[in-house]
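dumping this here before i forget
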Amino acid sequence: MNSKTLPVVLCSIFLIACTAALAAPESKDAAAAMRVKVEKANLGSTLGEALSQLEKISGSTFEPDWLVLGSLGVGKDTKVTLEGADATCGQLLDALLQKAAPKGRTLAWYIENNKVQVTTQTRALSRLRTKEPAAEEEEPAPRPTKSARAPARRAVGGTTLNFDEVPLSDVVDFFRTVSGLNIHANWKALELSNVTKETTVTLQANNITLGRALTLVTEQLNAGKAREESVYWVVDDGVVMISTGAALNQKLVTKTFDVGDLLMFAPDFKGPRVNFEIASNNRGGNQGGYGNSNTNTSNSDEKMFPDEERQRDNKETDRIEHRRAVRDALISTIKDAIGEDMWQPNGKGSIKMLGSRMVVSQTLLGFKLLEDSAVLK
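structure:
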């Protein structure tokens, strides 16, 4: 290579490097890219093409899990189009996946390694839940306890629920995967109420607890059904059970409640009535003196405070009557809340008082109805 050709070669190398640098896409933060608002977008006509177009618009990298999507019959050639305006890239992707999803299924996306992963909703949430937390992140949620309140407080993945005629079995699997709780559906009992694994559920909700989500689902299944045929969710020994009223009305459970505060009696304290005649007779002759030795009152039936003993007796009577009245009213309120037919002699439930503690024996269905009525909290 002579000295004349060297500048030409160096110039060519420089031009190639500049061209490559201009051609290479700028690495963007995927999360920020999906929040970018698009004035107008026209995506389609297949899912593969639409994702590629949105990938270019956002400047991020998409990684669809075609293997998992293919198991639902969704592929690159799935026909789908979408027109949108004044929406973020994330909102456009949500709408695109909703249109591409087969009936009864839900597609979703999440960001991992600065790339947009596209898959099913269940797999996405499961993947996010099992992901190891970074050192600077918060501690993972504590393991589920046997407390009946724990499932109600557990958030459902902190995400949007979008069930569009999804089979009930898939909904139960979804809740089980997201919450990490032991959820059991009594399918044999449910079938007697015409609720099967294929019964579909439609639900749209955002950032609700598992308890609230389960309640919304069961309320949807119970339209027009009697109490015994309705579907409920309860917690028994740490297991979230989904069953019918008839099945849950078999097992008897006993719980104890401290109602001492309710039974407490606040007496109406009244000042003593003084017998001034006795006080006057006890006054001595000396000015300002008391206890004249010539006056003997030790054998007198009269007292300076004649009502003291009677008031003491009345207070004790009032206390007993108050406790009895409050106790009877409390028991009556509890029984009325779910119906007399749930208590003996017609039903299985019973209520007993042991001092300031109330012992309630009732079926799982009975306690569920009491919980819903907010009588026992």
